[in-house]
Amino acid sequence: MTDNQILTFKISGEEFNKGYNLYHLNKGLSNFHALIDKAYLIKENKSKMTDKDRDKLQIKAFNIREGSFEADLAIHLVGISMSLLPAFPTLSPTELWDLVTRGYNYLKKILELNGQGIDINVNTTGDQYGNIKVNVYNGNGEILIEESPQVTAYASRSQKTFEEISRSINPKRGIDYLTVFDKNNFENSIRVGAEEKVIFENHKRIEPNAIEFKGFITKSNSENFTGKLKVLSTSDELDLGDYNFEFAVKNNPDKLRETYLTEKTFYAYKETSLNAGTLERKVSKLKIIEVAD
Questions:
Q1: CA distance 75 to 78
Q2: This protein's superkingdom (predicted)?
Q3: What confidence tens digit (pLDDT) does each residue in 84-112 have?
Q4: What is the CATH class of 207-292?
């Protein structure tokens, strides 16, 4: 048996008005396929796609239209028989697309909160009937978002793909937005344009309090004052080990030379990256503001 979900896929911008830039078109379609793949893997509780999974899950394009790039895409699940027993539900393309759009909306909400500097936490609750909810709440204990564990797991797995889509949006290069929608339900859609690009960049932020640590630079680039350093000791909340760094003020190449493989005291701000699915925060870079002996 074959079931399907029909969607409209569109990349808009001057880059696609006169012929199609295959590099950007391929990237957009590949990222869309990756979003569907990850929904399938979450639903099937798998870690990667196999050849059999590729035979089962198929996305086919038809009705390609000129003026930007617009096409109808059909998500097919081949060879899946619909169960007549409620206790044994079967997977449908509509469920896959619903998971993608719910994950997209969850990610947007989480990253908007993160961009506003709001501290958020997460817990899981359940009832006697086995209904489990993931609750995202602020510092006052106010619940801001309620979702299912599947949606938050999908958000965690798909976050980098959405970030990659957002990085491809660049009106100066003639790429204004990417959108995918169900003509029968326009609310069930995803759209990544200039506004969403800013939101998806909000997974990173500079923490407000400076930290102090001892360490030394192991690799540096004197042109942009970046590189890697090793943290040897600190009294602040920072694990020992290797980190990317960037000098906040890029006007003193002598400091780079003086700290290369030579232990110094550093003062810096942490740039952290948020996993929107788990709300775990990792240090992605140290922004150095001062170096002392």
A1: 10
A2: Bacteria
A3: 434 435 789 999 999 999 999 999 999 99
A4: mainly beta
